Amino acid sequence: MATTRIGIDLGGTKIEVLATTAGGVELIRERRPTPGHDYNAIVEAICDAVASVEARLGRVECVGIGMPGALSATTGVVKNSNTLVLNGRPFLDDMTRALDRPVRIENDANCFALSEAVDGAGAGQRLVFGVILGTGVGGGIVFDRAVWRGRNAIAGEWGHIALPSAARQPGGGRRCYCGRIDCIETWLSGPALLAEYRGRGGTASGVPQMVALARSGERLARETLAHFFERLAEALAIVVNVLDPDAVVIGGGLSNIDEIYEVVPGLLPKYVFSDAVTTPILGNRHGDSSGVRGAAWLCGPNPPPARP
Predict the structure, then answer these.
(1) What angle is formed at CA 106 by the lines to CA 245 and CA 268, rounded to 5 degrees?
(2) In the chain, which ranges are E strands?
(3) pLDDT tens across 152-176, in order?
(4) 5-111+289-297 maps to which CATH number?
(5) Nearest 5°: phi and psi at 191?
(6) Where in the chain is the domain with CATH 3.30.420.40?
(7) What pLDDT does 82 receive?
(8) Which CATH class is domain 123-284?
(9) Which residues pair with 307 in a beta bridge?
(10) Whole-structure pTM value
């Protein structure tokens, strides 16, 4: 049996491969560790993952890959990836040669946004902004079911805008891995949320435990989450003021904090330049599989190809 689409989600710790029908019905899903410190091993692992699926389903003519970072519009090599061994490498050329077929590559947040815009929480909306809140903070823009990449291939990278209120926040002056100070990622990522809580004396071992403590009434956990929601509203307002999307869909590990969808919409009007703010803030429909589903959508006639 042959399938139409294969998508790869190249993460910092795992490589996920998904085979679907043309309509997005899942056929096979596999995961394997990412050899994150060895570029050639990453290329080989992706080839092995594709071969494993094709041994059961037959060869496909195109493979879609979602990855951290982006392909430079001027040099074609990878830039801005927190999987550092990818940076400066001709990843598209190498994967095309290794797989011996066309390959489509997009930023992983773009793939998430595409998945949720096509048949996820943002289905039916023209302009969808997809947010990743996890180990890092990312974003992707989809317009009419097509990824909007931008002239410099950085559209949606709101995680590396400085949080406007950072100078007024305790603990300001946070250095981001990108070299800048007080990027939104340094305030809204999972590690940043947990570090703030523990820095104030909290004892939770992870964000889920901290959230559970907040729900049970622990004052410190509740205060830390309240600060997080306020900053998230401030950061999302930047996007709403510039793009005014029809929907914002949130993914990543922190998307499982249900209170985001209850609290943040009510905070947005403080920061948005409008007399009313009706922008829906939505949880994703496809969970941690959304990015790999979006990668699978990169190949084939539906949805349309990415826009520059």
Answers:
(1) 25
(2) 5-10, 14-20, 26-33, 63-67, 70-71, 78-79, 103-107, 127-133, 137-143, 146-147, 247-251, 281-283
(3) 989 999 999 999 999 999 899 999 9
(4) 3.30.420.40
(5) -60, -35
(6) 5-111+289-297, 123-284
(7) 83
(8) alpha beta
(9) 148
(10) 0.92
